[in-house]
Every structure is written in structure tokens, then in C-alpha cells.
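In this section we turn from sequence analysis to structure. A common task in structural bioinformatics is to predict how a protein folds when a small molecule is present, because the ligand can shape the pocket around it. The inputs are simple: the amino acid sequence and a SMILES string for the ligand, here pyridoxal-5'-phosphate. Study the lines below before reading on.
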Amino acid sequence: MGNEWIRRDAAVVWHGFTQMGAYAANSPLVIDRAEGRELIDVDGRCYLDAISSLWVNTLGHRVPELDAALVAQVDKVAHSTMLGNGNTVVIELAEALAGVVPVDAPHFLFAADGAVAVEQALKIAFQYWVNRGVEGRTQYLALGDAYHGDTIGSLSLGDGGVFSAVFDPLCFPVVRTPGYADPGWAAKACAAVESRASELAAVVIEPLVQGASGMLCAEAADVRALGETCRAHGVLLICDEVATGFGRTGTLFASEQCGLRPDLLCLGKGITGGYLAMSATVTSGEVFDAFLGCDLGPQTFFHGHSYGGNALAAAVALEHLRLIEDWDVLAHVRARAGQLAALLEERIAPLSGVAAVRQRGLMVGVELAPPGPGLRWGRRVCAGAVARGVLLRPLGDVVVVMPPLTTTEEEIVRIIDALDASVREVTGS
Ligand SMILES: *Cc1c(COP(=O)(O)O)cnc(C)c1O
């Protein structure tokens, strides 16, 4: 049955970040449904979703409360445009988010994808200076190993590497200083901000963890130092919390741990608990105010997306925020993160095939140490875990472990058991 679904899939679907010529031969899972944190394929096999469906899922699948919020909203309205008009549930969501985001006097511009939240932040930062009559602040500082999405603007901020090199001619240049892999990254970024402040519209960072480049981690104090330097030199700070937001690192937002109050904050992925496509660009009151002017005048931000502020997504996101609070999810994340850290140190880090283990909360990267290039250890270790009923996916030779925030003590042990066995099998350690 699975093979027939894969054949139909490969005949008509184009999968992102996937070589379709090899897709069918790579034993893809075809998921039919889910229960809790288990995904169930067309043959009825269960897989623990240890990558949170590529980092979006927070409370598990088919959460009765989220399902109910979605159904209740269907009975009202699924979607109405936010361009020039409002919608009650979107207003309620923005009010609820305003109470928890680390941004002063926040305003919310909703969209559907993380990359678009970043794209919007870039355009807002650029026009902010134009609206204020300040010339020359037209560039962005981004870090080495950064990833901010796949649209042209967000791709320009990213430190692409081989996969996106083909698009280099389409991208705009940015000021680039080293990423979190360099222990001196913060001092270098601060020095660049100090010397080039008058050219910079904004500094863009992934606070605490550079996710897509392999869970590279920063010290909170270093991130804070960069934020303070931006503030001192009047450069806008854009925090991309598309991956780190909504509890993943143990606080609702990673910016909080770093003591940051960014001017712009990008949200996505976990905002609806992994249910529906939604993202948001959050701006401070000061940024927002720079866009006020006469009707249809040049201060206006002429940008918007058809599905920005979708009502179904907003209803789920609102209920999701309530559940994070009600269930004390952040305390649970910290407890499970502690357990995971202990097990990683005891059983995974000592393996000879493992070079490094990096973790912030329930965001983990296990970097393998293949003795030569082209061995695809990351892929093979993850395939081994999948064969053991634990869904993992690598970033090159970094195995990402990112279970849903409600993951249990037993599930953490299951993930470590599968990872341990698979690393030993593939690397012979
Ligand atoms: C995933 C991600 C994005 C892009 O979000 P999409 O919804 O995939 O467009 C942007 N920034 C960071 C830090 C991410 O992890």
C-alpha cells in the first residue's frame, strides 16, 4: 500500500528541499493521520514525531482543545481580508500576543510563512528610515551561518552555502560578520555596528540558536551585548524567532533569556502549535508610529498578503497561547530539557562517531564526525532511527532532535535509545 502512495505522490507532488529524481527511492513516509505525538503512515506504522514536523508542532497532534477552537471558528468564518478591515478573532489574538511578546507597545502584521515575516521586517526597517527622513541607512547586518527563509530577501540575509549558491546573482549584499560557531562573534558584530551604524537599517539575528545551520548556540550575554550596541547606535534590531519562539528554548521567546527588547520580532512555525500556516512581524510602537501619516500617503506600508491574518489560524493560535499558560508548558519544557541533556551527556556525547552535542531547551543538534566526506552519516543515522519508530531528520551531518514541547519522560528515553542504537550501527562506535 505504501509503495502505491509513493508512486502517486512522486507522479504529481513536488517536495521542497528534495531531489525528486531520488525521492521515491529514498523510502519516504506517507503520513495518513496522527495520534498525540505519533505520526501514522499509510501502512499503519507509528513514528514518534521527534522533529515536531520540522519544528512547527508544539503540543502534539490532534490536541482536543485546538481541534475544538478550529471547529468553533469554522462555524463563524474561515477567512476575511485584513487589508483595510478587521476580524474579531485576529484582534483577540493580537491582544493576547501583545501581553507576552518582548516588544514595547507591539503591533502585529500577520502573514502565512516565516520567510514572509522576515521579508516584511526587512521592508519595514528600510522604510522606517525613509519615513523619518534619514538617508543612507539602507543595509542589513546578518551573521555567518544565518538562515531566515527562502524568499529572495530572506535568502539574501542567509549565509546560504552550496544549496542556495545558484541564486546568489539574485540576492542583495549584506554586511556579514561571523556566526555563533565563532566564540568571538559578538565582539565582531558589535565592532561592525559601531563602525558602520550610519549605513545600517537593521541587524538581523536568530537569538540564542542558529537553527538551520545545525543548532549553533550563543551565550545569552553575547546576544544581549549585540542588542545593547544596536540600541546605543540607533540601529534597529530584528529578532527572527520563527524557530525559537513559543517555548522551544525554555522561555516563551529566546529574546527574553537574552534580555532583549527587539524593535522587530519575526514569529512563525509554532505560533499555531503546528496546525495552520501563520506568521507575524511584530513591531515596536516607535517603529509603527513612523508609518503614520495622511491617508494613502507615502508613509503607508504598501505591503500585504491575501491570507495574512487568517481567522482559522488565529483561533487556533489564540487557544494555543492559552494552553501554553494553562498547562504550564514552559516548566515542562525545562524539565524535559534537563532530562534530555543528562541522557545526551551520558549516552550520546561519549560515542566516537559524535563530535559535539548542542542544546538550548528542546532544540538539539548532535553533530556527527564522519572520518571522510560523502559518507552521509546524518542521513543514515536518521534512517536508522526511523526504522526504530522515531522520526528524525538531519541537517547535513547534524542530527536534529526537537520533540514537541509536551513530550514525555518515556518518549525522551525512546528517542535516546533509537539515536544511540543508530549512531552505533552507522558509525561503528
Ligand atoms: C524556518 C525558519 C524560517 C522560515 O520560515 P518558513 O515558514 O519556512 O518560511 C525563517 N527563520 C528561521 C529562523 C527559521 O527557522
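The chain has 15 helices and 17 strands. As an exercise, try to locate the residues that line the pyridoxal-5'-phosphate site and compare them with your own expectations.
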